[in-house]
């Protein structure tokens, strides 16, 4: 009101100033009054805009249910139109869009009026339709999907991160292809953990890779360089690490020339053949490596054909998946499914079946019932030894004093564990999302 009065006083002053000076001359007072008038008008426009925004927000908040009714009605009308066109064989009379359907008359008159006011203020569009005005490219959505997405976005004030379970504003949430929603800190934490744990690389959720651009803007230059270097390291088959025990960092393939690897961090030189300190003559025998391989042979351990790591079979079949991603047979070491070796050892199969039966039994089972269940689980394991763990996992709560142990990361958890319904594999939530 005060601004309107000021504007009125300015107009009165301008009327009184007419014919008091030459038309081709501009006085300082006139310039000052003109500038002041523009500032007052701009302030009035700003306040009107804020008032309109509050009014629209209030209308959308109070009439969300009515908007939902409009969406459902228009969706039904659209579906009816498509069905009618298919049944009529393309009758041109059906090309016109269906008429506008009134809001559910069961709503009070005042609610319908306020909703129509909100729609008119948007230039004839509902608040949800404004979502389609974006110029950014993206996957096509049907009209009903756009309506539903817009209504959901308007109604949600905060979104819960699926990892830390804290609530965040929508712009602080990263939406993944699998449908999970992460806060930026949890996505960044996953990427940085993947630089130290190859089983987490590449970062993924529900078996779908998470693109680096989703979080790269939240990472420092040093963190981004670290991730990109690790990406090269984990994709390199024959890796060379600095022979300096005080360093031990990965040496990029571009820094290896004629079997001589130069470390950019400490300046040491490493032989790319034997991985020891660089030498000009033939590679000497590595006594430590020979002792390790002799021990592995005596214990029946196997060596990965890709990264040369020594692997010990703890449970299950002879199908081994190394941390580097290579899959091979535990008996002969060849690439998986390229050898005639058997898939199971009877003793290992029996041990695994007994383990599953005993841990799932609430109370000690009678011996006859226990043996029956062991045989049944043995058959399940034989049929699902290459289980892809598809479908929903079973959640098991209350682990007692000992809790549950994840069979992938081997960490203990006391609240709950997830179990595959087909092969009985037990994993924690973190491994279910990022390792399985």
From TrEMBL:
It comes from the Eukaryota. Keywords: Metal-binding, Repeat, Transferase, Ubl conjugation pathway, Zinc, Zinc-finger. Residues 157-351 form the RING-type domain. The keyword Transferase applies. The keyword Ribonucleoprotein does not apply. It catalyses: [E2 ubiquitin-conjugating enzyme]-S-ubiquitinyl-L-cysteine + [acceptor protein]-L-lysine = [E2 ubiquitin-conjugating enzyme]-L-cysteine + [acceptor protein]-N(6)-ubiquitinyl-L-lysine. Gene3D superfamilies: 1.20.120.1750. GO terms for biological process: protein ubiquitination. InterPro entries: E3_UB_ligase_RBR (IPR031127), IBR_dom (IPR002867), TRIAD_supradom (IPR044066). Its EC number is 2.3.2.31. CDD domains: BRcat_RBR (cd20335), Rcat_RBR_unk (cd22584). GO terms for molecular function: ubiquitin protein ligase activity; zinc ion binding. This is RBR-type E3 ubiquitin transferase. It comes from Aspergillus leporis.
């Amino acid at each position: 009101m005060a601004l309107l009065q000021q504007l009125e006083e300015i107009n009165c002053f301008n009327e009184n100033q007419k014919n008091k000076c030459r038309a081709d001359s501009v006085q300082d007072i006139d310039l000052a009054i003109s500038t002041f008038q523009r500032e007052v008008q701009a302030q009035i426009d700003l306040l009107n805009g804020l008032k309109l925004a509050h009014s629209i927000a209030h209308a959308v908040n109070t009439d969300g249910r009515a908007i939902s009714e409009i969406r459902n009605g228009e969706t039904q009308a659209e579906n009816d139109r498509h069905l009618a066109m298919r049944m009529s064989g393309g009758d041109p009379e059906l090309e016109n869009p269906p008429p506008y359907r009134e809001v559910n008359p069961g709503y009070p008159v005042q609610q319908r009026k306020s909703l129509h006011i909100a729609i008119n203020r948007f230039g004839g569009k509902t608040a949800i339709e404004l979502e389609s005005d974006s110029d950014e490219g993206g996957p096509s959505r049907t009209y009903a999907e756009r309506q539903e997405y817009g209504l959901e976005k308007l109604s949600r004030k905060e979104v819960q991160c699926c990892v830390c379970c804290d609530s965040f504003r929508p712009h602080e949430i990263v939406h993944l292809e699998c449908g999970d929603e992460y806060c930026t800190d949890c996505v960044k934490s996953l990427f940085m953990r993947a630089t130290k744990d190859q089983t987490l690389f590449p970062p993924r959720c529900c078996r779908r890779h998470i693109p680096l651009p989703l979080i790269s803007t939240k990472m420092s230059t040093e963190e981004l360089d670290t991730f990109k270097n690790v990406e090269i390291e984990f994709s390199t088959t024959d890796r060379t690490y600095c022979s300096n025990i005080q360093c031990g960092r990965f040496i990029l393939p571009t820094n290896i020339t004629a079997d001589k690897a130069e470390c950019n961090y400490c300046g040491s030189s490493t032989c790319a053949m034997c991985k020891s300190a660089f030498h000009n003559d033939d590679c000497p025998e590595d006594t430590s490596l020979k002792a390790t391989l002799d021990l592995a042979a005596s214990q029946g351990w196997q060596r990965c054909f890709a990264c040369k790591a020594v692997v010990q079979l703890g449970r299950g079949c002879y199908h081994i998946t190394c941390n580097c991603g290579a899959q091979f047979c535990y008996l002969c070491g060849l690439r998986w499914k390229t050898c005639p070796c058997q898939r199971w050892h009877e003793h290992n199969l029996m041990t695994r079946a007994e383990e599953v039966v005993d841990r799932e039994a609430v109370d000690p089972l009678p011996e006859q019932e226990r043996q029956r269940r062991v045989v049944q689980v043995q058959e399940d394991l034989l049929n699902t030894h290459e289980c892809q763990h598809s479908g929903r996992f079973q959640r098991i709560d209350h682990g007692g004093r000992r809790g549950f142990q994840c069979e992938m990361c081997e960490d203990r958890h006391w609240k709950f564990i997830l179990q595959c319904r087909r092969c009985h594999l037990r994993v924690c939530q973190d491994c279910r999302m990022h390792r399985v």
